[in-house]
Amino acid sequence: MAGKTLYDKLWDAHLVRQNDDGSALIYIDRHLLHEVTSPQAFEGLRIADRQPWRLANNLATPDHNVPTTVKERALGIEGIADPVSKTQVQTLDANCEEFGILEFKMGDERQGIVHVVGPEQGATLPGMTVVCGDSHTSTHGAFGALAHGIGTSEVEHVLATQCLVAKKMKSMLIRIDGTLSAGVTAKDLVLYVIGQIGTAGGTGYAVEFAGEAIRGLSMEGRMTICNMAIEAGARAGMVAVDETTINYVKGRPFAPTAEQWDAAVAEWRTLHSDADAEFDRVVVLNAADIEPQVTWGTSPEMVVDVNGKAPNPAQEQDGIKRMAIERALRYMGLEADQRIQDITLDRVFIGSCTNSRIEDLREAAAVVKGKKVAASLKQAMVVPGSGLVKAQAEAEGLDKIFVEAGLEWREPGCSMCLAMNADKLGAGEHCASTSNRNFEGRQGFGGRTHLVSPAMAAAAAIAGHFVDVREWMN
Amino acid sequence: MKAFTIHSGIVAPLDRANVDTDMIIPKQFLKSIKRTGFGKNLFDELRYLDEGQPDQDCSTRPLNKEFVLNQPRYAGASVLLARENFGCGSSREHAPWALDDYGFRAVLAPSFADIFFNNCFKNGLLPIVLAADDIDELFRAVESTPGYQLTVDLEKKVVRKPDGVELAFDVDQFRRHCLLNGLDEIGLSLQHAEAITSYEEKRKQQAPWLFV
Ligand code: SF4
């Protein structure tokens, strides 16, 4: 019999009950909550007169709606100008209070984007099942955890039962052989993967990322990769546990200590696919082929090398694809065959659960240090992923580097990643963004998003257009 | 949850692939703390020419006349015909809520994004996967036949065309059972409370650090 995949191991360890119809009841170790997808779930509990099954497994923080300017944040919840946003954050506070759920509120240094906060606190641990009413929950798979997004009905289900009704997914291995070249980051890697397999390439699969290039990544890098597994259609992305994982987790507030730490580490070391494990699909790519990536269109799979150009629809045989390319070019205000480096930028956004961790900010700061943001830009902003990332960056003096270069240094939250607060693109504006989605209107009505790595966004901020950041590194 | 057994209705064709959840319901409408009222903002950016705001009176907004749902022939449509990878993007359940609130009961497509597909079932909305060829043919039929209707029969697991031809579809047994009977999934899971508790006890022995 073939060995087990990492996914098999995680699934088996959490199986509460196998139903006859192929579905199963799966136990959830960590449930993260934020203000957007939880209010209706709490409401459901109240209506049915149900209580949370196990309080300690839940952790909440507001992130999507919080303002990110220092001035607004100083006012606390009163600083949220939009009354509807304010109600949502207040509702989360009230619900957490009513049901007794731990929440890092606005004003708490531990507040931040839920997918930055979980790992940073050690609330995400190897071997866990982690869910959240947010598709980028796949991020937490970087720890050798089974992590995926759920809808609001499932948020309610997890609150009430600590379980989910799930069906086992198929398994996919994405192996990246070799090492990334200098100036090529985890973000480029994952954009490249999506470009190769498409935004639906991972649909129905739990994806394990493996290979030398993945092993060589920091936890931040692995989180970036798993974060965007969902952009390839895969609900869950994961990476096997190794020393990098264990060293990252050690000493975090929610991490086990003393004998429990040793016992945990011993178990965590088994969290990898067996050598003879079989996957339903295997994709092998070569790290050496990967160059800094920039999306040109309105789907993350519409991506090219920074030295490349937008496609020419006339060369596409498939009619539906041709229409999609034409529509994307029109929306993005690009010509067929237009060079990526000739796109003039209006704004730059460095942040989001994909790229707002300390390492991301260090990479961006290294590029802008001693330089000035292009005068043609309307705005360039850096939004740390959590209050603790912000404090760390300030302790390292990164905030000063950004401010001196002309970038805004903001308070933690989702910010311009999805423009639910005041940080948005205007219609027609081009933005180099380190976030994960370039859908139409994602960063503001009519806004044009180009997904890139933090280093590439930083270089673009200085140049006012895309440049190959590798040329700046010598 | 409202039950779904059999439904007949006008079909509206949305002829584009990869329709994402931002397109189905833009984020500014996610700020609501309610489950209802999203229908007027379904496909907001495609449907109206201006930028929509929450709590706004949509009846006076400029309509995009080109958009399929604004064409009189598709008024009252309750079956949505769509293309590949429908519902990709975020996990927002507001997407099925908006479709449902608008009046859609079923979505037909060659493929769906996972989370969206899942969310539909929890809200009495039936997502149906049909072969790409069948979908193509339905697009042609809908476009050439004003008032084109389909019947979705979950009991028999078929989509019935006006000429009586039936297209069979697959649906997970458990989901079908819940939908047919309008069952509450939480209540069903809580019937296994003992299994959950005994799992916790066993797991606590193996991984005590998860239970502090
Ligand atoms: S940063 Fe963006 S993608 Fe991440 S949770 Fe917030 S809104 Fe979602």
From TrEMBL, chain A:
Binds 1 [4Fe-4S] cluster per subunit. InterPro entries: 3-IsopropMal_deHydase_lsu, Acnase/IPM_dHydase_lsu_aba_1/3, Acoase/IPM_deHydtase_lsu_aba, Aconitase_4Fe-4S_BS, Aconitase_4Fe-4S_dom, IPM_dehydratase_rel_enz, IPMI_cat. Keywords: 4Fe-4S, Amino-acid biosynthesis, Branched-chain amino acid biosynthesis, Iron, Iron-sulfur, Isomerase, Leucine biosynthesis, Lyase, Metal-binding. One of its GO terms (molecular function) is isomerase activity. It catalyses: (2R,3S)-3-isopropylmalate = (2S)-2-isopropylmalate. [4Fe-4S] cluster binds at C353, C414, C417. Belongs to the aconitase/IPM isomerase family. LeuC type 1 subfamily. This is 3-isopropylmalate dehydratase large subunit. It comes from Pokkaliibacter plantistimulans. The gene is leuC.
TrEMBL record, chain B:
CDD domains: IPMI_Swivel. Residues 1-131 form the Aconitase A/isopropylmalate dehydratase small subunit swivel domain. Gene3D superfamilies: Aconitase, domain 4. It comes from the Bacteria. It catalyses: (2R,3S)-3-isopropylmalate = (2S)-2-isopropylmalate. Keywords: Amino-acid biosynthesis, Branched-chain amino acid biosynthesis, Leucine biosynthesis, Lyase. Its EC number is 4.2.1.33. It holds the Pfam family Aconitase_C. InterPro entries: 3-IsopropMal_deHydase_ssu, Aconitase/3IPM_dehydase_swvl, AconitaseA/IPMdHydase_ssu_swvl, IPMI_Swivel, LeuD. Belongs to the LeuD family. LeuD type 1 subfamily. Heterodimer of LeuC and LeuD. Catalyzes the isomerization between 2-isopropylmalate and 3-isopropylmalate, via the formation of 2-isopropylmaleate. This is 3-isopropylmalate dehydratase small subunit. It comes from Pokkaliibacter plantistimulans. The lineage of its organism: Bacteria, Pseudomonadati, Pseudomonadota, Gammaproteobacteria, Oceanospirillales. The gene is leuD.
